Amino acid sequence: MEHARDTSATSTLDTRRWWTIVIFAYVALEGASLQMRGSVVPVLRDSFGTPDWLLGLVAPAGTIGFLVFVALTGVVAGRVDTRRLILLGIAGTGVSVFIIGFTPSFAFFLAALFLRGTFGGVGRGTDRPLLSHLHSEDRGKWFSYYDAMWAVGATIGPLIVTAALWLGDWRFAYYTLGAAFLPVVLLVVWLPTPTIEGDGDDPLTLDEIKRVGRRPEVLVMIAGILMTTGVEGALFTWLTTFAEGRVPASFVTASLSVLLVAYIPGRFVAGVLSERLDTVTLISGLALLCLLSTVYTFFVATGVGILVGLFGIGFSLSGQFPTLLAYSTEAAPQHSAPINSLSLVVSTLGIAGVPAILGFVISDAGIELAMQLLVVPLVALVGVSVIAWIRIGTGVNQ
Questions:
Q1: Average pLDDT for 148-170
Q2: Is the predicted pLDDT of residue 160 greater than 80, yes or no?
Q3: pLDDT tens for residues 130-150?
Q4: Hey, what's the signal peptide range on this chain (predicted)?
Q5: What confidence tens digit (pLDDT) does each residue in 109-122 have?
């Protein structure tokens, strides 16, 4: 990772603070742009007369480019200037979001989503590794805060679409959000090259890929993220279906919002606890709390009690991804970018795969059994954390 050293302690502190602001602002805006797409799907049906089977292409169009380029960004880390990569990612994401507002057809909308995903892959493949090197002394805390900012953006995104529809045109949402990237781009241009501790990311070689891939901490991260994001994907996709007839009618749509809102305090609390607890203890505690919340929600609770359980699930589930990623990054901090890319690829597979599997369960046995089956990956997550505790140790106390 290309970087410059600053001999002034005050200047170093200021640089780190401003680059942290850049990263947090970008991930919040990127999260908003991602969650906006689901909110405009019904409008696209009306605007372009798009059949439902074509609307199903919205998610893949935004994901394919992201997966390819977040992986490529991890591979080139250490060989390409970080400042140029993050500027490309932020500016490209903002421009592509703005372009979506000019959509004249559904095909154009899909192409613009692919472009947004492509630049998003570059930005998300660069920003967290940079944050890792800016705050190498307490990665767990800052990774949790980073994901909390994403959750803030993801919560605001649909509200922007709602406001735009109230004003008369869904396109206003994309114009507004695209323009919001401009101050962040200008800040990147204005700021000096980020000053980081150590030597940043080393160039990735085949031998290093094999060595890092065999690290037990990385294997724990892969297993843990696959299970937690699988649960997330299932809830994002099927929760409102489960809520129908089980919670008051006025809360059916809001049930998913209850889950997502819980992510914000959940990730901030996980960040604070990462400074007080060792990593594996935190992973284990969150996993156990999430398991108990899931059992209560889908086996015991009724009515409004389901919403209380959903808040508990979101609160405890939200801290897993950043904590698991920090745990594996501590094992090979000189390769934080490829580890970050790997985590994003695995999370995408979990979010996409588990809901599809549950779709078959729902068609055969119903939504209640499908939601109850979520205890399986959560029990496995507790098991993985216990094995990590016994075989690897408790991890670095963040």
A1: 88
A2: yes
A3: 888 888 888 888 988 998 999
A4: none
A5: 999 999 999 999 99
List helix spans (H) across 168-278.
171-190, 206-213, 216-243, 254-273
Q: What SS3 state is found at 77? A: strand
Q: What is the pLDDT of residues 258-291, one digit of tens each?
A: 888 899 899 999 989 988 888 899 999 999 999 9
Q: Are 151 and 363 in contact (CB under 8 A)?
A: no
Nearest to 329 by CA among 150, 144, 79: 144
| Fold matches, 14-190 and 203-397 | yes
| 173-202 core/surface letters (b: 16 or more CB in 10 A; e: else) | bbbbbbebbeebbebbeeeeebbbeeebbb
Cβ of 137: how many Cβ atoms within 10 Å? 9
What's the Cα-to-Cα distance from 321 to each of 1, 151, 231, 237, 325, rounded to whole Å?
Answer: 24, 12, 12, 19, 6
Cβ-proximal residues to 233 (8 Å cutoff; 6+ apart), any chain: 350, 351, 352, 353, 354, 355
- According to CATH, the topology of domain 14-190 is Growth Hormone; Chain: A; (1.20.1250)
Residue with tokens 């599809």: 356
pTM given for the model: 0.82
In terms of C-beta density within 10 A (0-12 exposed, 13-18 middle, 19 or more buried), how is residue 356 classed?
Answer: exposed
Q: Could you tell me the fold of the domain covering 203-397?
A: Growth Hormone; Chain: A; (1.20.1250)
Q: Which residues contact 54 (CB under 8 A, 6 or more apart)?
A: 106
340 burial level (CB within 10 Å; 0-12, 13-18, 19+):
buried
CB 291 within 8 A of CB 312: no
Could you list the beta-strand ranges (E) of 335-397: none
